[in-house]
Amino acid sequence: LAKTTQPISMDSYEGQEVNITCSHNNIATNDYITWYQQFPSQGPRFIIQGYKTKVTNEVASLFIPADRKSSTLSLPRVSLSDTAVYYCLVGADTGRRALTFGSGTRLQVQP
Amino acid sequence: GAGVSQSPRYKVAKRGQDVALRCDPISGHVSLFWYQQALGQGPEFLTYFQNEAQLDKSGLPSDRFFAERPEGSVSTLKIQRTQQEDSAVYLCASRTQGLGMNTEAFFGQGTRLTVV
């Protein structure tokens, strides 16, 4: 399983752009990169997924360099409601490998 | 329902008691996962089903833990002779069986188990 490394915590202020970088040096050819968000007392929620280059949706952008050994989740103009834990997952489609969580990054957004 | 439903939301068990946690996945979802999440930690994999087949149970911490999904839909996680270290949130997730690309997993709100 590809191991991921991400910062334990980050602080930001409302309206700022937040970038959370995840390292995954031994990512495999078939692996996708997926980010989940988790609020207290809730299950994780899918944010975005990509394989290479850049992916953007209504919530976030995901930047993946050519070597795919890292990825950056970008949250534009965060609000207080973006305070949560963000998990970077790396895995292929089959079975449990698709959903192996690390410790995540705890993002605290201040007013 | 529209999402993954777990029951009960909260369970307090006396040490040594058996408990059963239920997961209703999204209708038609082939894959079902169980996770254990301790306070302040990320979810830890317990077991994985594809339809009714339990394809991976390598994360179950002991033989006191047992999971089933007999008809390929509802799943039950059973913990026998509960211990204090079993106190955690138990999360269930389901997803469609993707072909060639990952598909989004949908999580329930979890069951918070407290063993006293």
Describe this structure in words.
- The complex is a heterodimer of chains A (111) and B (116).
- Chain A is mainly β and 111 residues long.
- Chain A has no helices and nine strands.
- In chain A, the strands form two sheets. In chain A, strands 1-9-8-3-4 form a five-stranded mixed sheet, with no helix packed on it.
- Chain A is globular, with a radius of gyration of 13 Å.
- The model of chain A has no long low-confidence stretch (mean pLDDT 92).
- In chain B, the strands form two sheets. In chain B, strands 2, 4, 5, 6, 9, 10 and 11 form a seven-stranded mixed sheet that branches. In chain B, strands 1-3-8-7 form a four-stranded antiparallel sheet, with no helix packed on it.
- Chain B is an all-beta fold and 116 residues long.
- The model of chain B has no long low-confidence stretch (mean pLDDT 93).
Q: What letter string, H or E per element, gives the SSE order of chain A?
A: EEEEEEEEE
Strand count, sense and barrel status of the largest sheet of chain B are: 7 strands, mixed
Shape call of chain A:
globular
The radius of gyration over CA of chain A amounts to 13 Å
- Please count the helical segments of chain A: 0
Order of helices and strands of chain B: EEEEEEEEEEE
Helix content of chain A: under 10%
Greatest chain-chain interface? A-B, 24 and 31 residues
Strand order of the largest sheet of chain A: 1-9-8-3-4
Task: Please describe the structure with a list of short key phrases separated by commas or semicolons.
heterodimer, A: 111 residues, mainly beta, five-stranded mixed β-sheet, four-stranded antiparallel β-sheet, 9 strands, globular, B: 116 residues, seven-stranded mixed β-sheet, 47% strand
